[in-house]
Every structure is written in structure tokens, then in C-alpha cells.
């Protein structure tokens, strides 16, 4: 019998990348439910996180990635209790040691503690994150590198000498001080209108499909991640897939994500320091193009997840 897997969410680029493009023949992977008919691509808040959902639905294994912070501690406990009642094992990937959307991390850390403690298996994406999880919560996750985001990597174009900063929105974990961007001297791409940065934006852009985004990113030699907190980054992986070097802040585990792969195309600047970020950009420009370090082997990542899913289901 095939195993029914419920990823939460199913269509996030990372979650799609940890399984083969055509799936596994011995698995049925459930898609994201439509939570808003006016925006059918929106998967949050995922209804499977509510205990009532399990009264009418089933799965053999659940793999939780993102989108649970709205539950709070009590809601997380209720979700875990619903899975226990049904005998459904949980696999949890710690993407966010600190939630990038939240200022106060107290309840979020308590939620992560519950998930790490009660999951049948825990993954994370870097040794740095595994060290933090082990220290905070007393359990060491299995480390698997971030899989490739760009299925067919393109060669980066010579393009502009300047760096680029892409801001889909000015979220809680993004530097909001315009002086940071002025010091950086980067081209700023701003999707959603944000008065605090409007005057320094070089480009306003509508939502891009993948092909448009890859063209825009690969027109630069360097991209800067302007974060003040966070853990890992799909943008970091995407840029390196495209041959673009990346300047990352010294917060979170962005440096560890690259160091695990011995990637010379990623360098670290002091968080929030535009002048230091500009220095790192110049270093990356002078060394561009940077050859990738240890190759991410997607087949190994796919197989590791498949093995864990089978193991936890067999141990029910």
C-alpha cells in the first residue's frame, strides 16, 4: 500500500524540492487545500493544523515545515494531541529557530520546543542550526543541506557591476533604515509599496513568475540578503544555483548554511551595517564568479526523506 504523506505546506519551493519532481511511486502526497477561492495559491493558515480537520481527513505521516506560529502554544498542543489520537507520526523540519515575522519570540520558541520534543523525527538544514536546537531543546536534528531551488540552473550573466537587493515586502526581519541601502549602493527592487524605502528604490516590480525572477536575479553578480534575524534562506540557495554570489548577515545560520557546503560565493557582513555589507559586496565582486563548493546532491536528500517517512510509519 502506498504511504499517504501530508506536507504542511505542500507547494512551498523548499518542500517541493525535497522530493523528486515526479514524486515517489510508493507515496501519495496530499496537496494544499484551497483556503481562499479568491487566492487559490494561498496555503495558510493550513486547516490541517486544527484538530477538527482530522475528524474528516487522514494521512499516514505529516511533515511540518512552516505556517504554525498563529496557533500559539495551546493550539500547537492541540494539534499534536490530535495526531497522537490518530496515531499519525509527525516529521518536523526546523527552518526557523527565530520566526522572521515576529518581534517577540517567546511563544514561538515554546511551540518549537513542543514540536522538537514530540516529533517522530526532526530535520534541519545546517550544522549551526542543529547545534542551537540541541542546546535549546536537548535533541539533535538530522542535518540535510538545502536542496537546489532552480531545477535547471542558468549561467549568471555578466550584467551590472552593482549588487541587487530584492524586497518582496518590508517584513519584520528586513532592515528598514534607508541609510543601510544608501551605504550599500545596491539596486533596490521593491515589490510592495513601503514609504520608508520608496525614495531609495531603483525598481518597483510586480509579482514575478519563476522565469522572470531568475532573469532578474542572474542579471546581478551579487545579491545582498538584508535580514536582521532568521535562520536559513531559500534565496541564498536560489542565488547560488544561478551562479550569483551572496552577502549574508551574521545573524541566524545563513553562514552555516553556506559553510556546510564550503561555498566561496557566500560571505558574511555585520547585521544591519550597510558599510560592512558594501565591503563584502566589493570582495564578492572581485572574486566573481565563485565556483560552487560541495555539490548539493538532491537524490540523497530525496532518499533521506523517503527513508524517514517509511521508518516512522512502520514504527507507529
TrEMBL record:
GO MF, one annotated term: glycosyltransferase activity
Record key words, sorted: Glycosyltransferase, Transferase
Superkingdom of origin organism: Bacteria
Glycosyltransferase subfamily 4-like N-terminal domain sequence ranges: 34-141
Keyword Transferase among record annotations: yes
Pfam family, one: Glyco_transf_4
Full protein name: Glycosyltransferase subfamily 4-like N-terminal domain-containing protein
Source species of the chain: Corynebacterium doosanense CAU 212 = DSM 45436
Amino acid at each position: 500500500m502506498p504511504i499517504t504523506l501530508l506536507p504542511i505546506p505542500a507547494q512551498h519551493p523548499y518542500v517541493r524540492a525535497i522530493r523528486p519532481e515526479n514524486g515517489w511511486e510508493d507515496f501519495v502526497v496530499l496537496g494544499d487545500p484551497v483556503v481562499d477561492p479568491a487566492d487559490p495559491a494561498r496555503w495558510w493558515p493550513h486547516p490541517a493544523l486544527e484538530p477538527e480537520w482530522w475528524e474528516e481527513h487522514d494521512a499516514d505521516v505529516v511533515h511540518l515545515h512552516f505556517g504554525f506560529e498563529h496557533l500559539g502554544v495551546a493550539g500547537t498542543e492541540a494539534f499534536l494531541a490530535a495526531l497522537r489520537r490518530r496515531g499519525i507520526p509527525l516529521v518536523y523540519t526546523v527552518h526557523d529557530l527565530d520566526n522572521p515575522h515576529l518581534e517577540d519570540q517567546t511563544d514561538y520558541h515554546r511551540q518549537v520546543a513542543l514540536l522538537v520534543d514530540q516529533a517522530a523525527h526532526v530535520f534541519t538544514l545546517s550544522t549551526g542550526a542543529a547545534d542551537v536546537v540541541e542546546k535549546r531543546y536537548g535533541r539533535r536534528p538530522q542535518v540535510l543541506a538545502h536542496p537546489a531551488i532552480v531545477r535547471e540552473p542558468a549561467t549568471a550573466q555578466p550584467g551590472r557591476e552593482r549588487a541587487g537587493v530584492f524586497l518582496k515586502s518590508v517584513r519584520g526581519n528586513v532592515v528598514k533604515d534607508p541609510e543601510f541601502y544608501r551605504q550599500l549602493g545596491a539596486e533596490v527592487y521593491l515589490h510592495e509599496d513601503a514609504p520608508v524605502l520608496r525614495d531609495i528604490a531603483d525598481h518597483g516590480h510586480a509579482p514575478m513568475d519563476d522565469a522572470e525572477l531568475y532573469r532578474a536575479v542572474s542579471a546581478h553578480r551579487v545579491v545582498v540578503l538584508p535580514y536582521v534575524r532568521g535562520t536559513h534562506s531559500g534565496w541564498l540557495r536560489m542565488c547560488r544555483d544561478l551562479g550569483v554570489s551572496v552577502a549574508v548577515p551574521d545573524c541566524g545560520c545563513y553562514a552555516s548554511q553556506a559553510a556546510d557546503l564550503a561555498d566561496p560565493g557566500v560571505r558574511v557582513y555585520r547585521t544591519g551595517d550597510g558599510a560592512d555589507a558594501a565591503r563584502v559586496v566589493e570582495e564578492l565582486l572581485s572574486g566573481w564568479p565563485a565556483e560552487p563548493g560541495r555539490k548539493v546532491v538532491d537524490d540523497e536528500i530525496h532518499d533521506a526523506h523517503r527513508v524517514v517517512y517509511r521508518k516512522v510509519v512502520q514504527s507507529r
